[in-house]
Amino acid sequence: DEGAVLQPRPAVVTVMGHVDHGKTSLLDALRQTSVAAKEAGGITQHLGAFVVDMPSGSLITFLDTPGHAAFSAMRARGAAVTDIVVLVVAADDGVMQQTLEAMSHAQAAGVPIVVAINKCDKPAADPERVKMQLGAEGLLLEDLGGDVQVVEVSAKSKVGLDKLEEALLLQAEMMDLKSRIDGPAQAYVVEARLDRGRGPLATAIVKSGTLICGQYIVAGAEWGRIRAIRDMLGMTTTSGKPAMPVEIEGLKGLPMAGDDVVVVNTEERARMLSHGRKKKLEKDRLLKASEERT
Ligand code: GTP
Ligand code: NA
Ligand code: MG
Predict the structure, then answer these.
(1) Where are the alpha helices (DSSP H) in the chain?
(2) How far does the centroid of ligand 2 lie from the alpha carbon of residue 17, in Å?
(3) Which residue, of 6, 48, 71, 193, is most buried by count of CB atoms within 10 Å of its CB?
(4) Which residue windows does the record flag with biased composition (Basic and acidic residues) (predicted)?
(5) For the purposes of burial, counting CB atoms within 10 Å of the CB of 280, is it exposed (0-12), middle (13-18) or buried (19 or more)?
């Protein structure tokens, strides 16, 4: 992207943490604070990624992780689609196995963490204990003189959500996030599903450039021509811009979470690239199978 004009873009935030600590609930609560959600009159935003537009006018793109599969896949491919990880820890349970896994995933990827201590409404909540546990694991919390922000929240009682948004905006501001907006898009798949009528649908986040309807793309090992692009409200749009989640229709098969999306000039090029990648996947699969036998 050397020499390209860079423009500020929203932060892409991934919510991670131990099972049932409230990742999805927290996202739902944040989503309800979104201006767009209010304007849409409660229409369900159907993507696993969505944008919260705060009263201040700032945007944040959020990704949910059911387990760490998607994040690990992205990390493995060096995609680094995530700018910030929100590490959700239930105030009653405290630090658990997957809390630590999420923490090390984020640290290995060099992604800054903001801690959200959730379920603070519960009688058994002990946020101080959670902070001690995280500190003991080497996380340098601001309360203990470090620079990792910690907020106490309750997704259930909708307490502390403004503080969490503030913390994320502060973190994003420090990172000075910018992307090239012109030219061919580079994007990453966050989820994919098969729709009966519309065929394979991939939710993607554009990393740089602009994705345009009608373009030939290769997503992982799959190719297609973009037939439709939808935004997080399910509205048809003509293009996808950096940090904005979009749903792409037109692929011939289902890509995987973490797969990269590239734009190519011709159908022939798309087919060739897809074919090459499929052969490589098959070769890797056979190699792995033979290694497992020996
Ligand atoms: P997985 O995706 O399955 O790992 O779970 P999750 O982390 O997304 O948690 P989820 O949002 O599904 O919440 C798990 C349970 O905790 C649900 O029963 C929620 O109602 C409950 N819960 C979530 N947040 C809060 C909270 O702030 N307070 C209380 N009391 N309960 C909560
Ligand atoms: Na759950
Ligand atoms: Mg969940």
Answers:
(1) 23-32, 35-39, 69-76, 97-108, 127-136, 161-175, 267-293
(2) 11
(3) 71
(4) 284-293
(5) exposed
Is the CB of residue 98 below 6 angstroms from any atom belonging to ligand 1?
no
Q: Which two tokens stand for residue 82?
A: 């995530």
77 lines ligand 1 (CB under 6 A): no
Check pocket membership of 8 for ligand 1, CB cut-off 6 A: no
119 lines ligand 1 (CB under 6 A): yes
Digitized pLDDT (tens) for each residue of the chain, 294 residues in all: 566 789 999 999 988 899 899 988 898 888 876 655 554 444 344 456 778 877 677 889 988 776 555 566 665 555 567 899 999 999 999 999 989 988 988 898 889 999 999 999 999 999 999 999 999 999 999 988 899 999 999 999 999 999 999 999 999 999 999 999 999 999 999 889 999 999 999 999 999 999 999 999 999 999 999 999 998 778 899 999 999 889 999 999 999 888 999 999 999 999 999 999 999 999 999 999 999 887
Q: Specify the pTM.
A: 0.88
Whether the predicted interface score ipTM is above 0.90 = yes
